[in-house]
Amino acid sequence: MISMSIKYDSKKILSTPGIYIFYQGKTPIYIGKAADLKKRLASYFRANAGGKVWQLREEATKLEWRELSSEVEALIEEASLIKRYQPKFNVLLRDDKNYFYVGLTKETFPRIFLTHQPTIPLIRTNKGYSKKYIGPFTNGNAIKSTLKLLRRVFPYCTCVELHKRRCLNAQIERCLGFCCDKNKLQTANNKLQNEYRKNIKNIEAVLNGKKTRLLSVLKKEMRDVARRQLFERAGKLRDQIEGIENIFRHRRFLELPQRISQWPDIQSYLKNLFGKTGSISRIEGYDISNIQGQFAVGSMIVFNNGEPEKSAYRKFKIRTVLPNEGGDVAMLREMLTRRFKHAEWPRPDVIVVDGGKAQWSAVRRVVPDIPVIALTKDARHHGHHIFFSSVKEPIPLNNLPMPVANLILRVDDEAHRFAIRYYRTLHRRTIS
Predict the structure, then answer these.
(1) Residues 155-184: pLDDT tens digits?
(2) CA neighbor of 283 nearest in space, from 234, 348, 226
(3) Which of 236, 235, 167, 254 is nearest to 195 (CA)?
(4) Contact assessment for residue 57 and residue 6, using Cβ atoms and an 8 Å cutoff
(5) What are the strands of the beta sheet with 27-34, ordered from one edge?
(6) ω before 136 within 30° of 0 (cis)?
(7) Which of the listed residues 187, 209, 231 is the one where a domain comes to its end?
(8) pTM, full prediction
(9) Which CATH number goes with the domain that contains 385?
(10) Domain count, the chain
């Protein structure tokens, strides 16, 4: 019998990532995370639940849960709450598995490593043992994947020993290239050291749950350097901001992409959503990339039957919209107007754009006969939302079936990636 003191209504829980807390009175006694809150919480109330779960249910008097935008966000939030409250059942229910901690060494160029035992110094450096740890994290694979994603945004060194040649990680821009190179290490100046340490500091901020504050700092710095026309530095900051946002934007960032075998169901759902009688096969995604109007470009990507058709991708240099005059909406309108002058290009069945109601309206003014989905990260409503009609309020992306939601995210991500790639190419040509 389920403890009657716990209020649990499965109909109120969405199949979305998040964290959940069992309380005894006002004291948290167990904190967990889930890729699918609905499914995970249901497992605690099965009749055949194990002894420790049964004990937890009997002692708990309240259950709370919080929906989050991604598994990465849930992983970090769970670690932060466990560290703060140290609930007793997090020890009892860990099934004899140790938690993971992220360690940071105290070197000139600090390194990042994983350990199960934060009280035991495992790495000796030229300035003594490392003493800073972040955690605990309950999923080893998830925190490893998260670190790999963060390393793409903020490169750092993982080489065990110094070496004479540029390492592979430096060649693919996962390492700054001087921190483990014997030939360059001695000549590394304070500017290089500060850049490296800032990367480590930013990773530490993200893992400690300070993503929002970090993004605010980076955006302010980007605006400041852009006003001083330091566009190379502004571009790098913009890439870091977008890199962080990309890590946290997916409902299931650590999940493999949806496969084409699910396309018939996705197609059927989209037909019902838009009231279309004909088939849906071609989806086009659009995005704009610029820094305060400078080097403004747009991208068009194509998905056919649920998979990218890269030969159909197109890129646009914005021509008529001047910096700070009209913004992204005007740029999007210019790109769409030029795109639909190409009668030789197949017309899309659905259009996906990054933005909110303004972007949705801009597309509809250009092509009123094609269904449009505008994907936005709505701070008021939390998480991703979409506009797909003339209604004033967006609907949560989580309300859509998971394969449909993930396809929309994939289209949006691909349009964003292609726009950024073109922007960087154009920017490099201009400053070289």
Answers:
(1) 888 877 777 777 777 777 778 777 777 777
(2) 348
(3) 236
(4) yes
(5) 27-34, 18-24, 62-67
(6) yes
(7) 209
(8) 0.60
(9) 3.30.420.340
(10) 3
